[in-house]
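Lab notebook, bench 4. The sequencing result for the construct came back, and we need a structural model before the next group meeting so we can plan mutations. Quick request posted to the team channel:

Model the 3D structure of this chain.
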Amino acid sequence: MSTADTGSIARATRRWREARIAAAPALRRQAARRRHLLRLALRAVAGLIIVAAVAALVFGLLARRDDKAVDRGEQARAAARSAVTTMLTADPRAADKYVDAVLAVTTGGQRDRIAGARGELAAEIAKQTAPSTGQVVSTALVGEPSTSGTVDVLVVAEATNPELIGASTTAKRVPVVVTMSQSGDRWLIAKARQG
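Done. Here's the predicted structure in token form:
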């Protein structure tokens, strides 16, 4: 290599270094901008992750609460079906047993009325010429179920003696709205009215 070549290499190297030194502030500003944008992006992603986690938690709790309300409604419907069937099934040979069975599926004011009229009710059942029978045709919740409180259930029943559930009709198919109240792990009829 000749001296001229070495001199041109040295000049080219020097120009490259000078250009690099001149460009350094701009490169630093560009790197700082990129770091700043990266930090903003990471903060935004972290914020979105936190919002998503909170939303998942809230929706999970709401779904669980809805599931609990639906379960309560289904339990009340099943208990209403059983209790109304019990109330419609009376044998004149076992009138006292019928009254005990009805008392076992009622609570509150409904139970108090039946207990207060126990003697008259047993006498009326004993006067029947044949056993009364009944079956529930369908049930439906009246309104949305909740996670606490009573649950109203519409019960459509076929009965040979609909007066046993307080119906004032001679029709064989009777709609009745029963208010179910949870007592411990059982659902009992707190109130019954013709629907």
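The mean pLDDT is 85.
Will bring this to the meeting.
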